[in-house]
């Protein structure tokens, strides 16, 4: 720099001799270092929680079974496609990184139109990624509740169904504990509301029949359960509340008009078999106000029971989720949420950059350094995703 | 800068892009085929998991290197700047080692 007089503009935009980089770029780098520390802390927390959960014998959720919904494939073909959607998101972010770095390169040549074009492509990439995240969050939160797609649950008109009607279709849920660190050896099974089974031969017989659920529990139909000598404690109630699941309809005010396509029991279990559904719909009386109030106490008890087992009736929240220990969803929300916030800020910065490029601000300033600074930030967001992708979705 | 410079820079950008895409594609190939490794190579589940997880981590570090070095241009900055940015991450490495080592969780990592 030829000019030796103190010049505020030069201090901010001029090059720092030790690093041969401008003040603005240096500060962006230092900000990114501190931000990287925050993300590292979140990912390490995830790792620590996961290791401590599996050490204590909880089955951690397998991400491949959690993130299986891909737009169109899921809605129209009902195909579960593990990792495909995440793959698309990763691809979008890599592409947007390339368009960003192309904008930086065009900025070096002071080619205004090219910078504007590449920045615009990057904005589209970033916005698409945010849309993908919204889709993923939505499906993570509402969960995989069987048959719940294209349907809504109307929970203010529950029906009372005699236990006997549902008896043959009810499911028994078993909670496993594992032997030591090995997730493959089930040491004992606890029946929900029931006893704990520790006999190895009995466990083997059960595991042969039972299906493994997302939450890491095992499910048996009531029939299989009684054949295998598993009894549930009598809860003292011979009735079950069933909530009708109605066909999706755009008219939200006319719920009664929509056909009932299934029921959801108070414990979250879906009933879809046509003849059972028809039977419930035809015979079970819709609750009166008085009955509803009476059942509220029972529902509260059931809810407490559910919380005791860390279950939700499908989907995920910060308290519990159907996929695994609560920490899984908690960290998912925090890490991908924090990353998404960064993507959002990045898109806002890019929009500002785009407007300034088009207005010719940087032409007048004589350089496109702002593109480089925002570019650094954008690549950092991509960098974080590389780690989130590995530690959340792959491992 | 001359246009020729720009062409060289763009060539290097696309080279990095293909590397990143290739590494990610390779990760997907592993993710989709790992269920068969036991059958193909006769390895135990625990061994497969250890190999797959460490491969993922190594590939991730490679990708991170290319993003930081090429896209963020750090390889072409002064060395001193690179050190100032990378050296603090010793603390992160230390935190990971500390949690694994003193937390006694070597055996239950995978």
Structure characteristics:
heterodimer; A: 395 residues; alpha+beta; five-stranded antiparallel β-sheet; 14% strand; B: 110 residues; mainly alpha; 0% strand
Write the layout of secondary structure elements.
The complex is a heterodimer of chains A (395) and B (110).
Chain A: H1 8-13, E1 15-16, E2 21-22, H2 23-55, H3 63-66, H4 73-77, H5 84-108, H6 112-142, E3 151-153, E4 159-162, H7 163-167, E5 171-179, E6 182-191, E7 196-197, H8 200-209, E8 211-212, E9 218-221, H9 222-227, E10 239-247, E11 260-265, E12 270-271, H10 274-283, H11 289-308, H12 326-359, H13 361-365, H14 369-394
Antiparallel strand pairs in A: 1-2, 3-10, 4-10, 5-6, 5-9, 6-7, 8-9, 10-11, 11-12
Chain B: H1 3-33, H2 37-41, H3 45-71, H4 79-86, H5 90-102
Fold and architecture overview:
Chain A has 395 residues and is α+β, with helices and mostly antiparallel strands. Chain A contains 14 helices and twelve strands. In chain A, β1 (15-16) and β2 (21-22) form a beta hairpin. In chain A, α5 packs antiparallel against α14 and α12 runs antiparallel to α14 (369-394). The longest helix of chain A is centred in the last third of the chain and has 34 residues, at 326-359. Chain A starts with 7 loop residues before the first helix and ends with a helix. Chain B is mainly alpha-helical and 110 residues long. Chain B starts with a helix and ends in an 8-residue tail after the last helix. In chain B, α1 (3-33) runs antiparallel to α3 (45-71). At the A-B interface, α2, α5 and α14 of A face α1, α3, α4 and α5 of B.
């Amino acid at each position: 720099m030829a000019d030796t007089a103190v010049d505020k503009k030069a201090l901010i935009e001029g090059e720092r001799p030790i690093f041969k980089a401008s003040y603005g770029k240096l500060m962006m780098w230092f900000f990114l270092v501190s931000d990287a520390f925050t993300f590292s802390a979140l990912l390490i927390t995830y790792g620590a929680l996961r290791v401590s959960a599996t050490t204590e014998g909880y089955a951690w959720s397998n991400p491949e079974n959690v993130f299986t919904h891909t737009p169109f494939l899921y809605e129209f073909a009902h195909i579960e496609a593990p990792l495909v959607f995440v793959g698309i998101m990763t691809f979008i972010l890599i592409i947007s990184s390339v368009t960003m770095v192309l904008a930086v390169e065009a900025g070096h040549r002071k080619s205004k139109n090219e910078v504007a074009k590449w920045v615009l492509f990057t904005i589209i990439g970033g916005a698409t990624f945010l849309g993908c995240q919204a889709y993923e969050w939505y499906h993570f939160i509402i969960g995989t509740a069987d048959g719940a797609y294209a349907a809504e649950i109307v929970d203010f008109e529950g029906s009372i169904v005699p236990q006997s009607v549902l008896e043959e279709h009810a499911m028994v849920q078993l909670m496993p504990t594992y032997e030591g660190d090995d997730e493959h050896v089930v040491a004992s099974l606890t029946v929900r509301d029931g006893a704990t089974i520790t006999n190895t031969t009995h466990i083997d017989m059960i595991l042969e029949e039972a299906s493994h659920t997302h939450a890491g529990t095992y499910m048996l139909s009531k029939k299989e359960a009684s054949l295998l000598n598993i009894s549930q404690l009598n809860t003292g109630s011979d009735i079950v509340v069933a909530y009708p699941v109605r066909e999706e309809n755009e008219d939200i005010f006319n719920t009664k008009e929509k056909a009932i396509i299934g029921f959801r029991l108070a414990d979250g279990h879906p009933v879809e078999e046509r003849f059972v559904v028809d039977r419930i719909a035809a015979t079970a009386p819709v609750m009166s106000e008085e009955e509803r109030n009476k059942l509220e106490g029972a529902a509260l008890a059931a809810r407490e029971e559910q919380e005791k087992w860390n279950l939700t009736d499908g989907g995920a929240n910060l308290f519990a989720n159907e996929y695994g220990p609560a920490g899984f969803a908690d960290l998912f929300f925090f890490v991908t949420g924090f990353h998404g916030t960064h993507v959002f800020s990045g898109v806002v910065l890019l929009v500002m950059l785009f407007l300034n490029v088009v207005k010719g601000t940087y032409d007048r300033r004589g350089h496109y350094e702002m593109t480089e600074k925002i570019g650094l930030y954008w690549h950092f967001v991509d960098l974080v995703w590389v780690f989130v992708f590995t530690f959340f979705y792959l491992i | 800068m001359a246009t020729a410079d720009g062409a060289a820079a763009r060539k290097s950008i696309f080279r990095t892009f293909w590397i990143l895409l290739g590494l990610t594609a390779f990760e997907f190939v592993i993710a989709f085929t790992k269920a068969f490794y036991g059958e193909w190579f006769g390895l135990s589940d625990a061994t497969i998991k250890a190999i797959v997880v460490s491969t993922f981590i190594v590939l991730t570090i490679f990708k991170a290197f290319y993003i930081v070095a090429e896209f963020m241009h750090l390889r072409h900055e002064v060395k001193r700047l690179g050190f100032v940015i990378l050296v603090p991450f010793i603390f992160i490495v230390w935190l990971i080692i500390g949690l694994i080592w003193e937390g006694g969780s070597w055996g239950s990592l995978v």
